[in-house]
Each structure stands twice: as C-alpha cells, then as structure tokens.
Design goal:
The structure is a single chain. This protein is α+β, with helices and mostly antiparallel strands and 577 residues long. It has three domains: 10-29 and 39-281, Collagenase (Catalytic Domain) (3-Layer(aba) Sandwich), CATH 3.40.390; 290-382, Immunoglobulins (Immunoglobulin-like, Sandwich); 388-574, Jelly Rolls. It is built from seven helices and 31 strands.
C-alpha cells in the first residue's frame, strides 16, 4: 500500500474509508488526440493572457429547481490490466471503487453529480487487444471499432490498459462537443489507487473544459519541465515537502514523486471554467418524449411532435436546416395536454433535413435538444422506399444455423417452447405470429454453451441508394460483464470477403417476466434499426449484394445466454433517376 500523505482530505465511501488516498476496511465491516506529454504553450505561442472570470462553484450556478446535472461515465479495462487481480470481479470492483472516489471528489470540488453507468473488464475478440503497443495506437484502435451502445450512453469512457504503455491519451473537446469521449491510460494495478484517481480526475478535467495550469499566462504554477512548458513558463519548480502541491490540471506528476505531487483539488480558475461548461452544456435529464420520423415519401408532410411535463415559458420551436443551406424556425403549436407539434409540408424526393429545437422553461432557461451522450440532430430524408427482404420466421427463407465453437444452444426457426421453469428463453415471438429464430428450442436448460453459435442469412441484392436494416432481437443473459453478447455482422460482395460488426448487445433486452404471471407476448423483445448513416463508410461503393449473420456468444465465466431474432427487414431507398 502506498504511503499516506496526511495533508490530503478524508472521504468516506460506504464500507471503505479513504485516508490520504490509502484504502482501509473498517473493523466493523475517433477524433484528434491530446497527449499528457507534448509541446504546450500559450495562445498564439506568445504571452497572450487569457481572461478567466472569478471562480464560481457549479453548485451555486445551477438552479436547484432545474434538477441535477449528471456527468455519466463508464470505466473499462483490457485483460492485461484485469490479470493483475485475482478475478475479473475483483478488477471490476476496483474500477467501481475508483469511479466512486472520482464521483465524490468532483461533487465536492465543483458540485457536479457523477454517475458511473457501467464498469467492465473484458476480452473482446473483435477489439484491439494485443495489437496496440502504446496508448496512442490503442486509442486509434478503440476508435476504429464498431459503435458500442453502452459507450454512446455516457459522456466519457475511461479505459485502463495493461497491454499498452505510454502517456495518458484523451480526446480533445469539452462537454459542448457531442460524441463519445475517450481517455486511455497505460497502467497496472500496482500503480495504486492514489495515482489512478488523480489521473482519472485530470482526464475528466479536460472533458469539463479545464486547462493545464501551465497553459495560462502567467502560469498558475511552474511544475512543468521546461521542455513541456510554453513560453510563459519562466522556471521549473517541483514541489518539496515544504511547498504546496500542484492542482489536478498541473504537470507536477512529471516531477520526482509522481502523482503524489498533485492535490485532489482544481485551481479556482479551472473550477470556474468547469462550472461554465457544465452550466452551458450539461443539461439535466428532461421529462420529454419526441416523435420525429426519419424518412417519408414525397407525398407526406414531416410531423415532429414532442410531449413534456416541463412548465414552458413560451412556445417551443424547431430549427430546420436543409441541404440547400439556411435555417428555418418553426414554432410549435399546442395540440394536446403538454403536447406540441410542427408540421412541415411535403418535399421533393431527395430532400434531406436536419433539425433541433429549443424549450423555453421557467426553471432551466432555454434548453436545447437533442443534447447529451449520443445526441445528434433530428434527421429526415424524403425517399421512395423498396422492401428488399422481409422475414417474420413463418416460412424458411434460407437462413442457416452454423455450429461455431458452441456445444449447445444452436439457432433454429421455431415457435418458442414457453417453459415457465426456464425463465431465460423467450416466451413468445416478437409480433404474435408464433414463429421466430431462437437459440435452441426445448424445455429446460437450452442456452448457448462453450463459445458462439451463428445464424447466417441469405444473400440480398442491394441497389446503389441508401438502405436501412430493421430487426427485433431478444437477449437474456446473467453475466453482464460484456463477455456474453449478441452481435450482428455483415459481408458484402461475396464469400471470402471480410465480415464487419454493425451492432452488438451485451445486456438483457428487458426485465425477466414473473413466471407466475406469464404475458401473452414477451416484453423482452426490442426493435432495432440500422439507418442509412451506419452503412455510408462501411459499404463498398460498388457492392451489389450483402448478407448478415447474428452471433450469440457465451463467454467466461459460463452463464445462461438465450437469444432470438424476428421480423428482419432490409429496405433500400432512393429517387428515380
């Protein structure tokens, strides 16, 4: 255990107590990159001074009636990092503890609530494990992977690697920038929770808009070695036992003593910058539902409707951007209790629209939407659609069940066995015709075991225009560490061409029904859509055919894994030439 430093604060975490960053148990119990080593300087490379407002704590800036502003984070590691623990569960518990400590410090420092939405330590055969020797390569490899649903639901992903080494890497951009934000750390459990916590807080400081202390002119401290400092830095003064520690955004960790030179606090100017970013860009979760179709025919209007229980200070509005340029503002009309809508007239085939809207509220001011992790504009394309393939499971349309490496749970077209004594399998199909594709179909223990099994679809002819894929999926799993998953992969052109993952699911699609009150239809079925943007970079320009396979995997440790697929539809769209 690392030597404790008495001048650090004391924080309590349930059954754990943090004393000077030593943990004890009580007896009662895609983008551009930023490197933590590199060339830094003042704006413009000279002695330009950045004006920073007086410090303001986030807790004082946010209206209490607006609801909490929550930063959502996910923590994960590779197998090399997890191997430093006795079990994968111990590794996840360690990261969860690290996330809890991070949350506590940020709430105390800047009044920000932090939710650790998920913690995983997994080996991903489709991922970068074993191919990235340094943190920069690992960051690029992680960026090249297909989108992960859990990553897109958080504001920041912190990835610890025992395989890759090098400077900590973070994506550029603050809370105001949309998209998945990733930080990569080359480390091992032997680094100690004290330094890992400081590194996590430093990385999240970037996400919150804080700057390195040596980036201010004059610098807020002069910890940075001269080769890493900008022209504003006049000297290199490392902390001593008599000197004050550096703050979280300093480079004092490059001095002898490492991360122990860095106090668990932000400089008041960085607290002020973080408070401004949070107030401007981190909106609370709203009581809001939106209905906005993504496609329509040339004869249809575009109807955007939203429902909210917020007390509005005026009519909400929709800002629409057309491909031809320019912004149109349309004010919503109240069409029911707490319901508003905008109706845009029909447009010619080929029209593409993007839209966002604002909600003027009494408690929160004007709230923009969409916002938050995974947010993007509302989209609408005017096309003439053609259904290329549709399969509801009622007849055999050419799907093949492949053994893969599994020893049980092979795919079959069937009517679900509906066994109330085996709660993991589907109780019905997704849409009421009785038929679907499921992993095995017999009473009792019928799940996937010892690897993966494949459901391989037939070849589909595709036209050059945009296309979308729709399907219903069922997935029930006990082990939610990411080892067990249901994945969709596609292959273009012909046999022998590479497969590309386009969708993955590693948590249950819904709550398991009570066996004593069996529903007519199983609520765990969910509908998924892979719209045109998914295929833009993935599809070869001259591809004329494609096929899909669904892979259900039982990883380690073994657990119940049941999957189902129903109502597969491929739709191509375009406009007459």
């Amino acid at each position: 255990m690392e030597q404790c430093k008495n001048r650090n604060r004391r924080l309590g975490f349930g059954g754990w107590i943090l004393i000077g960053l030593c943990w004890v148990t009580p007896v009662w119990g895609g983008p551009s990159q930023h490197a933590e080593e590199g060339e830094w300087g003042c704006a413009g490379g000279g002695h330009e001074r950045w004006e920073v407002p007086a410090p303001t704590l986030a807790a004082d800036a946010f209206g209490a009636s607006c609801g909490p502003r929550v930063l959502r984070i996910g923590l994960t590691c590779d197998p090399a990092y997890a191997s430093g623990f006795a079990t994968d569960e111990e590794a996840r518990n360690y990261l969860a503890l690290l996330g809890h400590a991070t949350s506590t410090v940020l709430e105390e420092e800047i009044g920000l609530s932090v939710s650790v939405d998920w913690v995983t330590c997994l080996e991903d055969p489709d991922g970068p494990v074993g191919i990235a020797a340094n943190t920069a390569d690992l960051q690029a490899a992680l960026r090249a992977l297909p989108p992960r649903p859990e990553w897109e639901r958080v504001h920041a992903v912190l990835f610890w690697s025992g395989e890759a080494q090098g400077a900590d890497r973070q994506d550029e951009g603050s809370l105001c920038d949309a998209g998945v934000w990733l930080a990569v750390f080359g480390s091992s459990p032997q680094a100690g929770l004290s330094s890992e916590l400081r590194r996590a807080l430093h990385a999240l400081g970037h996400r919150l808009g804080a700057r390195h202390t040596q980036d201010f002119c004059p610098p807020l401290d002069e910890c940075a070695p001269m080769q890493h400092a900008g022209p504003c830095q006049e000297r290199w003064q490392c902390p001593t036992p008599q000197a004050l520690e550096g703050t979280l955004m300093s480079a004092c960790h490059l001095c002898p003593g490492g991360w122990q030179n860095v106090a668990l606090t932000f400089h008041p100017r960085n607290r002020s910058l973080a408070a401004q970013a949070i107030e401007s860009c981190l909106w609370p979760d709203l009581d809001l539902s939106v209905d906005a179709p993504t496609t329509r025919t040339p004869q249809e209007p575009w109807v955007v409707r939203w429902r909210t229980a917020l007390d509005l200070a005026g009519l909400p509005w929709l800002d629409v951007v057309r491909t031809s340029g320019g912004v149109e503002r349309h004010f919503g009309q109240r069409v029911g209790q707490q319901t508003y809508e905008v109706v845009l007239p029909p447009d010619p085939c080929g029209t593409y629209l993007e839209a966002s809207f604002g909600l003027p509220t009494d408690a929160c001011g004007t709230v923009p939407w969409p916002h938050g992790p995974g947010a993007g504009p509302l989209e609408n394309s005017v096309v003439e659609a053609q259904l290329v393939f549709a399969d509801d499971g009622t007849i055999d349309r050419g799907w093949a069940s492949l053994l893969g490496t599994g020893s049980a749970g092979f795919w079959t077209r069937a009517q679900p066995a509906h066994d109330p004594q085996w709660p993991f399998g589907p109780l019905s199909d997704s849409q009421g015709d009785g038929w679907c594709y499921v992993t095995d179909n017999r009473p009792g223990n019928s799940d996937v075991d010892d690897g993966f099994v494949e459901l391989l679809g037939p070849w589909w002819a595709i036209s050059p225009g945009p296309m979308s894929l729709h399907f219903d999926a069922f997935f029930d799993v006990v082990n939610t560490n990411g080892e067990d998953r249901l994945v969709a992969e596609v292959q273009f052109d012909g046999p022998g061409e590479p497969w590309s993952a386009v969708w993955r699911w590693s948590v249950p699609t819904g709550l398991r029904p009570d066996a004593n009150v069996l529903p007519v239809s199983d609520p765990r079925w969910r509908s998924f859509a892979l719209p045109a943007p998914v295929w833009e970079a993935l599809r070869p320009p001259h591809a004329t055919q494609m096929r899909i396979r669904f892979v259900a995997r039982d990883g380690w440790p073994p657990s119940a894994v049941e999957a189902g697929i129903d109502r597969v539809e491929l739709v191509t769209s375009g406009c007459p030439q």
